[in-house]
Structure formats: C-alpha cells, structure tokens
Design a protein that fits this description.
Length: 384
C-alpha cells in the first residue's frame, strides 16, 4: 500500500462550473441518495432535484490505490461509513495513477484492469454510503506520475520536449490526456454496471490537481489548455459538473488581486479569510458560479500542535464557510484534508483525521454537517 502526497496547501478553492470552465479556480447532511439525480449548478448555487445542495466533505486521495489490494478494501468502506455517520457527503479523490507505483495508466492508452476495478469499488462504495465524488483526472506533481510522467512518455517516444510545462502545449501530450479523459468517463463500472459518465454518485470532474506553469506566470498557457480541455470533457459527458483544479490564482489582468495568490506555505487564518472573501466576491459578481473550499487542514507536524489547536482551527474554518454560505450565497461547502482509516501509517502526512479515534474533531465535523443541511432547508423554505 503506497500513499504519497507532497506540496499540500491548506487552503485550496475551486469554482465549479456546469459548462465551460474558466481559469480562475474553481474547487448538509444529504437527504437525497446519490441515485436520485445529478448535482447541478444554478447561478451561484448547487442544486439537487431542484433543491439547494449544501454539503460538508473531505479528501481521501488514496482510495483507488488502497482498494487495489483486496485485503485493504475494508479501509475504503470504513472511511465512507464513518464519514457518512458524521454527515460528510462529498469526497474528493484521485482517478489517476500514471506509470508510477500501483499505476492505473501503465503507458499512454494501456491500463491496469485491476486498478480500474479498484476505482470501480470506490465509486460503488461511495454510492452505497450516500457520498458523492469529486474525481481528479491528473496530478500537477510527480506523485502518482502526473504531468511529469506524461511529458516523459512523450520524450521516450522521441517527441521533442523542453520541460514539464509542455504538458499544456504539446499536441501529442494533450492527446495522451484526452485519451485518458475518454477512457475514464466512458468506463463501465464492473460492480454497478453504470458508465461513469452516467453515474450520479460522481458529482464533479476535476481537470487537474493544482496546475501550475513555471514558464508562464500570466496564466495564459493554462487558460488556453483549459479552454481546450473543458469543452472536450463536455463533448463526452454533459451531465456532470466540471472544475479546473486551480488554487485560486489571479493573473496579470488584475494585479491588485495578486496579494491573494497562494504560495507553498501553510496558509494562516488572516490570509485565508482575505482569500475566501475575495474569491467569494468574484464568484458571485463576475463568474456567477458556486464556490467550494476543497482543501483545508492543520498538520500535526506544525510547531506547537495540539488536538485543541486543531479543533479550534477547524471550528474557525467551518464558521467561516457557514457564514459565507449563509450571507454570500455562493459557498457550497468545504472539504477537509484528509480522512484515513485506522492503521494507515503509510498515508499519514500530518493532516490525517481518523474519525473513530479523533472523537472531538469528529464531533466538530458532525455539527458543521448539521448546520449546512439546516441552511439548505432554510434556503429552500425561503424560496417555497
């Protein structure tokens, strides 16, 4: 069981769109089972079966890789079951593993069926426990292969490449990516018998986890890539929501907003508050799309860490999310980084939460879930 993740930023946000994705990121206690319909966006809100959809969620990037070992699959089931018990109803996880240890895509177009069946299991278990999925399609980093692996594949085939940023511009590499997108979206789940593109349990496709381009800080290169890939995804699957996977960077066209751009540092609450307010305003007035806080957490590796300190941080984050959802109208929810099951030392990165062990934190999560569903009900009542 291999679990690797690097460059965690404790506050990542995505703007989720239902048609063409714009390159300005975009990242409840559920009362309707996933089979009841697809989550959609209506203006600045998520809706499900015509009703407001607000959620509390989590990240567990490791699920497919762990599920590849039949002896470890119970850990996936345990996390979904425990998450559901505290009202967590959206999970963000990886639908990629490229030419690395326990790979899904061995080489361009060649797939490991055992790993694909592991992803089938993840989707089926999420469906079983009423959890919707945000599935990311490739990594920016070399963990699980990612963008560097795509470039290396091209280089090994004799394609002239300069650096990893050719991922966004080289037509051969873009073809590799499109082929992967098509393969995943058209995959028929061996457990449920439902193609991924027709599966309501899947809430959102994420183009790439945290894209960055070192040769072009203006954002134009990534934006051009998005403008090509978003319509391609929609040409295959127009049922699901789609998001870029960026971290909320502002480009050269609005220099006064660059103060809110994240770095690789652990984000502090003051910065986080400004970041959230800025992106809330822009999501409401410019993009007019719902907003999701897709990664936040506090690491046990931080100096002076304590459970009480983490719980205080969680309370502050959840209060901010709830207040902005209540007053701003565009916040759909937040996803804590990250949940593990017991005995998963290989996946520990300092941010891990084990709900069966971290009782006080689990209680805080449960209260947030209840508040978000109550807010969804009150919003529906005010409209009806």
């Amino acid at each position: 069981m291999t679990c690797i993740i690097s460059n965690l930023i404790s506050c990542v946000i995505a703007l989720v769109v239902s048609s063409l994705v714009v390159c300005s990121e975009a990242r409840f206690l559920l009362v309707n089972a996933p089979g009841d319909g697809f989550v959609q966006s209506k203006g600045t809100e998520f809706v499900l079966n015509g009703s407001p959809f607000l959620f509390n969620g989590f990240n567990s990037y490791w699920m497919m890789n762990v599920a590849a070992d039949p002896n470890q699959r119970s850990k996936v089931s345990n996390v979904f079951r425990e998450a559901s018990s505290v009202g967590l109803t959206v999970c963000r996880t990886w639908a990629f593993s490229d030419g690395s240890n326990q790979y899904l895509q061995i080489s361009p177009g060649l797939y490991n069926e055992n790993m694909f069946q592991a992803l089938d299991f993840v989707v089926a278990e999420a469906k079983k426990y009423g959890v919707r999925l945000i599935l990311s399609l490739v990594n920016n980093y070399n963990d699980f292969g990612g963008r560097p692996q795509y470039v290396q594949w091209a280089k090994s085939s004799g394609i002239p490449v300069n650096n990893d940023d050719d991922f966004y511009t080289n037509p051969v590499i873009k073809g590799y990516y499109k082929n992967h997108v098509k393969r995943v979206l058209t995959r028929v789940n061996t457990i449920t018998g439902i193609a991924y593109m027709n599966e309501p349990t899947i809430m959102v496709w994420e183009l790439i986890n945290e894209p960055r381009c070192q040769v072009d800080y203006s954002g134009k290169t990534i934006n051009a890539w998005v403008q090509e890939m978003a319509p391609y995804v929609k040409s295959i699957d127009n049922k699901h929501l789609l998001e870029v996977g960026l971290e909320g960077f502002y480009g050269d066209s609005i220099p006064d907003r660059k103060q809110y751009n994240p770095g690789f540092q652990v984000v502090q609450m003051a910065f986080t508050g400004s970041w959230m307010s800025s992106h809330l305003q822009d999501s409401r007035t410019i993009l007019k799309k719902p907003l999701v806080l897709t990664e936040f957490g506090k690491s046990k590796k931080d100096p002076g860490y304590s459970i009480e300190g983490r719980d205080s941080f969680m309370n502050n984050m959840y209060s901010s999310i709830y207040n902005l959802a209540q007053n701003g109208g565009t916040f759909g929810g937040g996803l804590v980084w990250q949940l593990l099951d017991e005995g998963m030392d290989q996946c520990e990165d300092g941010y891990e939460i084990v709900l069966s062990q971290d009782i006080s934190t689990a209680s805080i999560i449960s209260r947030q879930s209840s508040k978000m569903v109550a807010l969804a009900h009150s919003r529906q009542g005010s409209k009806g």
